[in-house]
Design a protein that fits this description.
With 407 residues, the protein is an alpha+beta fold. The protein has helices at residues 13-44, 50-54, 57-63, 65-68, 72-94, 224-227, 229-241, 247-281, 292-295, 314-327, 329-343, 387-406; strands spanning 2-10, 112-116, 121-124, 132-137, 141-146, 159-165, 172-180, 192-197, 201-205, 218-220, 284-288, 302-303, 309-310, 346-350, 375-377, 384-386. β6 (159-165) and β7 form a beta hairpin. The two termini are 24 Å apart.
Length: 407
């Protein structure tokens, strides 16, 4: 399996300026290649391939010394990134999905450059103090790296990415190294657990999970975005008052970016710890196959006969959407899948339809069984339980049935 190792970079002020200039140059290359493809299609109906654009790099580097300062292969990787964006665009067209034509990238939003190790970039731990490494980047110099965990001995380095988080002098820089590692299975526990995602609680398990849930199987929802909402609102109001292009606006924008980055790191930390607790607890983990993108869509407008619109609950739905996105269900499912693969666990995704309306005791399904957000009372047998725990048990049973059918 492939594991991504991400380490923090500590560039000097000169190196930070060079890294920023490198991102700007690759962003310019990306946008120019996109413009060339658009013009070729609009004027002649022709399609330009990545290989054709890569063949022009030598002439570009000759005419533009500022582009020649950077790695040739990293520029090829940037053109391949654009090619992948077009490939995804055509794939979505064939699938009948919303196409999403590739867009021009702002210099503030172009935050990564890919390399091939040994060509324009080199990661090394030789002659470095314990817990540190060195990353030599063409056109930048040797940047200090903090190793918070060791890299496997004998690991073969292929693609290496340099990423920026945030903007301005307070931006964080990282090096990301994908490495192929062997799976390290955990000891068998003989347990299976069903998990129901929620907003009031981050998740509810069919049985208590040590270190994650309480005795009722509920894991608290930290609500990171809600906790930082006041600070974010103040920072965004300050940003709105600043004149565009001013230094004050740049500082205000950086302040907003740092707050969003803090929330993102908090959410990722919670997700990884939650996924690890689930993987350590059970051999089989059954999750809802949620389509979060569909769940957070805005409600359709309801026109009236007078040419206006009727109330459609958009304000209440917006609050629910924020809570769903703050919980990070999609990120959590991805983390569980990744850690389960490494630990030799099995993850089963089941259809969530009616899991919260079906009685876990007798199987009776009705909308009236769900009395409230937290209470479940079966109209047929009178079974009473917490609605989320009842759903988690149904999810576990659905996953167990699916495993039996598959085998």
């Amino acid at each position: 399996m492939i594991r991504r190792y991400s380490f923090r970079l500590y560039p000097t002020s000169r190196q930070r300026d060079a890294l920023t200039a490198m991102l700007a140059a690759h962003c310019e290359l990306y946008n120019a290649a996109l413009q060339e493809r658009r013009d070729a299609w609009r004027k002649a109906g022709a399609t330009i391939r990545a290989a054709q654009q890569m063949a022009q790099l030598t002439d570009i580097r000759t005419a533009r010394p500022d582009h020649a300062a950077w790695s040739f292969t990293s520029q090829q990787q940037t053109l391949r990134r654009l090619d992948k964006a077009f490939a995804a665009f055509f794939r979505r067209i064939k699938a009948g999905e919303k196409p999403g034509y590739p867009r021009f990238r702002s210099a503030h939003r172009f935050d990564s450059v890919d390399f091939r190790h040994g060509d324009g970039i080199k990661f090394s731990t030789e002659n470095c103090t314990p817990g540190h490494a060195a990353l030599r980047v063409q056109g930048v110099g040797t940047v200090k790296v903090r190793l918070h965990r060791p890299i496997p001995d004998g690991a073969k380095l292929g693609q290496v990415s340099v990423k920026r988080e945030g903007s301005g002098p307070h931006a964080r820089w990282h090096v990301v190294i994908p490495i192929e590692v062997d799976c390290d299975p955990l000891p068998k526990t003989g347990r299976a657990v069903g998990v129901d995602f929620g907003v009031a609680h981050l998740l509810t398990a069919s049985e208590p999970v040590p270190g994650l849930t309480d005795q009722d199987g509920h894991a608290a929802n930290p609500r990171h975005t809600a906790s930082a909402a006041e600070r974010l609102a103040n920072a965004q109001r300050a940003l709105a008052r600043c004149k565009r292009g001013s230094n004050r606006r740049s500082k205000a924008r950086n302040r907003v970016g740092r707050l969003h980055a803090l929330v993102r790191r908090q959410r990722v930390d919670t997700v990884r710890k939650t996924a690890l607790a689930l993987v350590r607890h059970a051999d089989v983990i059954v999750l809802e196959n949620l389509r979060t993108a569909n769940m957070v869509r805005r409600p359709k407008p309801k026109p009236d006969d007078a040419g206006g619109f009727l109330p459609n609950g958009a304000a209440a739905k917006a609050g629910l959407n924020r809570s769903i996105l703050d919980a990070g269900w999609g990120v959590l499912i991805g983390a569980v899948l990744a850690k389960a693969e490494e630990a030799g666990r099995e993850v089963v995704l089941v259809d969530p339809a009616n899991t919260s309306r079906r009685c876990a005791r007798c199987g009776h399904t009705a909308a009236g069984n769900r009395v409230s957000q937290a209470k479940f009372r079966c109209q047929s047998c009178g079974h009473v339980d917490h609605a989320d725990r009842n759903a988690a048990i149904n999810i576990l049973r659905a996953g167990t049935a699916r495993r039996q059918v598959d085998t």
